[in-house]
Amino acid sequence: MFNLNFTICHNKKSQERFFLHHFKNTASHDWNYQDIDFEMLGAIIRQRTHDDYYHFIKKTVLRSLNHQQLKMVYQVKPRQVLQTMQPGVTWQILSQTASSEIGAGDLLLSPLNYWKFICHDVISNPKLIKSFANQPKSQREAYFGGVYFQGTVIRANGSEPGYNCCFFADYKTKRTLMLFTNNIDYQTLRQTAEELYEIYNGEQIQP
């Protein structure tokens, strides 16, 4: 079920207003992934750097990529994106959901750019991997910085209405597997991705 009770955020100002209006922390869970975590990070970046999230990410984290294909969701028109095949999901629903998620779903990359980012800027960066791998060792979940760790493999999943993606990357062997879909739901994506990983690597990944 998708929330249709809010409008599309058409620029960074309307994104900030939405974030401030809907911000709420119940502190009732010890482990609960929420997009609000990344939205708060985006707000901190803006406060500390005096730059907006989009331009900061372009100049730092994604500086090596083709920025012609790097867009905020409100900068993209429906004809520029492969349309979803999932019933009942429209571009308006995607735009409403993604544009409200500052730092957690509003920035769009092409699959090729995403692959370049993971392969060249993440798993080929020993300092980054070491720093990230050390963080979750004492946690119940081997999770930090948006990725899960299992041995030398990092993995992550992403989902927006009508679209799902995942990746597995071994930072020792550099073997990488990515899957992008516009026609299956999130749980089917995860199951399919784990099966592909087993075929590709000859071993199972922990769920």
Could you please describe the fold and organization of this structure?
This protein is of the alpha+beta class and 207 residues long. Helices cover 38% and strands 15% of the residues.
Structural class: alpha+beta
Q: Cα distance, first to last residue? A: 25 Å
Helix content: 25-40%
Low-confidence segments: 1-5
Shape label: globular
H and E order = HHHEHEHHEEEEEH
The gist of it:
The chain has 207 residues and is an alpha+beta fold. It has helices at 12-22, 36-49, 53-59, 91-99, 111-122, 126-134, 186-201; strands spanning 71-72, 107-108, 143-144, 147-150, 153-160, 163-170, 176-181. The strands form two sheets. Strands 3-4-5-6-7 form a five-stranded antiparallel beta sheet, sandwiched between helices. It has a two-stranded antiparallel ribbon with strand order 1-2.
Keywords:
15% strand; disordered N terminus; five-stranded antiparallel beta sheet; alpha+beta
SSE order and pairing:
Elements: H1 12-22, H2 36-49, H3 53-59, E1 71-72, H4 91-99, E2 107-108, H5 111-122, H6 126-134, E3 143-144, E4 147-150, E5 153-160, E6 163-170, E7 176-181, H7 186-201
Antiparallel strand pairs: 1-2, 3-4, 4-5, 5-6, 6-7
